[in-house]
Amino acid sequence: MQPFDDIDGEFKGRLREISTTTRSTVDNSTVTFRTAKIECEYTPKVIKRLAMGQLVAIPNVGALGSNSSYSLYEIADVYPMHYSMLTLDRSQPAAIRTEFMELIQKEWENGSKSTWIEIVAAPIGYVMKAADGVSYERRAMAPLTGSQVELLSRESIEQLICYLPSKAKSEDYSLGRLLGFTDESIPFSVNIESLIHYMCGTFAFTGSGKSNLTATVIRKALRAIPDLKVVIFDVSAEYGIHILDVLNQLPSRVLFTDSFGDSKNPAAEYFKRHATPESLAGREKDFYPKISKLFDDGKVEFLQTRLAGEEDVARFSTYEGLVEVLSNTLNEKYGPVQQKILVPQVVDIIKQFLRENRLELETRFGPKTSELIAKIQPLLADLPANSALKKAFDSLAKVVDAIPETPEEEEGYSWNKLADEILSTAKDSPRVFVVNLPEAEDARLETANVINEVFRKRKRSFTLSPRVLFVMDEAQEFIPQVTRKEDGTDQSSRALERLLRHGRKYHLNAWISTQRVAHLNTNALQQLHSYFVSTMPRPYDRQLISDTFAIDDAFMERTLAFQNGDWLLTSFKATATQNIPVFFHAENNEDILDAYLK
Ligand SMILES: Nc1ncnc2c1ncn2[C@@H]1O[C@H](COP(=O)(O)OP(=O)(O)OP(=O)(O)O)[C@@H](O)[C@H]1O
Ligand SMILES: [Mg+2]
User: How many angstroms does the Cα of residue 207 sit away from the middle of ligand 1?
Assistant: First the structure.
């Protein structure tokens, strides 16, 4: 393997200087970036080949005496220079300036002694040893100014950046192709298991391609990870179309909270409710049979959003709620002293009862609860008839009496069933769930409920399979910086933060995507190990990303010139080497849909 590419002997570059810039961050501390200024000989071939995203190797102090240790830098900017440009100013007559510019223009054709190429590159924190065979090591070593710079070959870049799965086909792991290579196409493959496992975020201005990328990753991840289940909370009604092929191929569920099951043409209603990508507009006739298949296979279900407060009501039908009621009696100012003395003992009896019967605090009351009541009521016999404690247990006895021996079967699809299906290991259980939640408030509450419920069940089950990925597109709806109980942001933000912080231990993962990072819960953001960034026009957003994830400003600025579907990925886990900014163009999800519809 050739570690370097000298562009047919034409690439001759040297490190001229390392420049340092310090700026303040959004939270008023400071960050320092070091960039390398490299100049190399100008030839038309070289200038055409060099681009952002390519890697260069600069000899560092480790090379003294051995000549084989390099610090690796990634190119952030390339521009051609001409000596006469520097002296061209407006104090000269316009005619002379024009003459000079004509001269400069001619020299770009072949290059001359007055031309050179200026390269700005930022360190990626790796040292390359090229003594016998090539090896990479994560460490910083000072580069030597004046020394000769090498350009990494395609093979070296693949080795350094791309994850090559040992068994599977590499296209299942490829998200697109690397940017910066004009005359060849290098597939960019990542470790999808790690990408999912270590939590991931996508940040880009509206219309940059977030949902498109998300759909692509979902499709690849389901193929790469056999025990993965994906739950998409869809506030903008996109995924029922974006991954229609997957929904048909795998066991799946598409859930709606507004029923249109009785309509004459459910496929048309389904289509109407979705945002269809522009490139596929006017293809209703192709979509309808594919959507009808979902209905025929019984994959579309309808369910009602829970009423606000229903959670609280449910809590008071559990032992947890009972303990809460009991401890509240302690706060009663004029409550009988006798009652206050009894409360700790009663709570102890409840705990013992739960232990003996292997029940959880969150378990709902059932016929067995009467045994607990029978144990406690004699203790309360001496309390006055109007004591809150006594009354609580009298009411509880009545409630428990009314609970049927065998619980009624729930009719139709329910949120409980959703949580069960998500965690089911049955072979034909659904692997993909699209939960349509067009109302933001419902979306937050239900998302929080589902995540909490799945957490609770997973904790109790002592198993890590299946792995579950929760997808929250439009995350600004779920994790704003300032949260309120009334609109559900408090509940969703807490559930999501918990998922991001602790989900990994339980194989519960999150994928979030958003168009604005400002006003987002930054605690949640800091849990992400991989992030895809595309154009964000607001400087504040770019700076926040650069500060939070330590991406060099020089790279962030380049994202401004991105086309739809171009991404900057930085990952601590999913790329072959940690935390290298990778520029790539993602596969277009719409191409796959288009092929599916034909
Ligand atoms: N990988 C890609 N290759 C080519 N075009 C793409 C790619 N990704 C997205 N696009 C184009 O960009 C458009 C917008 O994509 P998408 O809907 O995914 O953006 P978004 O970031 O989710 O927008 P919003 O913020 O409005 O949800 C798509 O209709 C598609 O035409
Ligand atoms: Mg979108």
Answer: 5
